[in-house]
Amino acid sequence: MPHEHEVAPGGAEGRPSSGSAESALPEHGRPAADLLTELARLREADLPVRGGHVTAYVYDTGREAVHDLAATAFQEMLEVNCLDPTAFPSIVALERRIVSAVAGRLGGGTGIFTSGGTESIMLAVKGARDARPVAGRPRIVLPATAHPAFHKAAHYLGLDVDHVPVDAGFRADPSAVAAAITPDTVLVVASAPSYPQGVMDPVEEIARIAAAAGVLCHVDACVGGWVLPWLRDLGRPVPPFDLSVPGVTSISCDLHKYGYAPKGASVVLFADEAVRRAAYFASAEWPGYTVINAGVQSSKSAGPLGAAWATLNAVGAQGYRDLAATAMDTAERFIAGVAGIPGLRVLGDPAVPLVAVASDDPALDVFTIADEARARGWFFQPQLAYQGIPPNLHFTLTGVSDVDALLSALADAAKASRAAGPPDVPADLLDALAGLDLDTLDDAGFTGLLAAVGVDLDGGGPEMAVVNTVLNGLPPATREALLVRFLSALYAG
User: Fold this and answer.
1) pTM value?
2) Edge-to-edge strands, sheet with 344-346
């Protein structure tokens, strides 16, 4: 029952089982043309990565020459191993240049090039934990809208999370942050912006509170870090949010989002180089080569590094200003257009081209809208209800988003959704799922359970509106357990 990755039940069509002939390694190598043809066939069910019809996951400049250059640079660095910078000095040169470019726009500091926002956040949490040890179990203060990567980092690194609420505009509450800080708090988090509604947290206030308590403060600017500076250049009001803000001690910025580099490319910056060093890992406790890693991974391709450097330099500062202006203008036109669609409203006041749309009409179901849009060739990302925030649809808008076509698709999908009505979910299904002992089921048993409620991992099954409505009616812990089992069954074959 997918949500975060939105793997539709029909998306696994043609999925070979682990024991099928299709998955067996051939005795002799197959021709390249044959393999590329099969790869193209396997990708037929994938969402398109160009054209602007997918409003999540992908970022498109609309500049094919830039994408082609990035692919070439990726291939040039493909086999270079970032494990040992002394063996491949090109990775040091490229990382220095990328980190310097990002630091130049985000208030300075020193940093690390990573595979994405989750790794950047993981390193920020590790740096805070190890740079400022506490007597008890270390803790993080997180607003309700903070990215799950912080929960993942806490889970992996042995920290506890203290949640704080957001206000009516979905901004973190500084007074709640202050009240949540304890002697064991090692990190306070703010978002610039938070992903769900594109809303800026009050970074200055939160950083000031953290500094007064002697606690480090991380700003998650993974999605906003490479669009907010360019919007500021254009004269738009952008509140201070980066390392220039007193009390902000680290910040993350994804270059594979509004930097338009291929996945995965991100940077985490630290105001204090000692905290950056605390994010590193070293081990000499074995007889092999000495291990020293700046990031979570050891061996990894330098392809993303080369592609990110090429993309940054090919687009240039003026190119990013132009792309930011186009995306933000599109977002503002989209927000104005949503107001003209009966029953729909925008949540909060987006500071970047991220927009969340909810329904005020019980007869107009956002999950059904997503299905109707998918049938029309569009992907709108569903977001489940959480702590009083209603279920909604998320739209990430970029330089290629066609706002008129998007609004038309949304209006058509809403009209069809109203005619279809909310999903028909059996009244006792939620109770049954909430009380289910998942530990008694292996993957095959869980697959059979899914089939019993109409979800076929090999194709067919209900529309995603049914699945998301079921998930929406369950508490987060039950959602998580079901999603883990779904993913396990999906990959089990």
Assistant:
1) 0.90
2) 344-346, 354-359, 392-396, 381-383
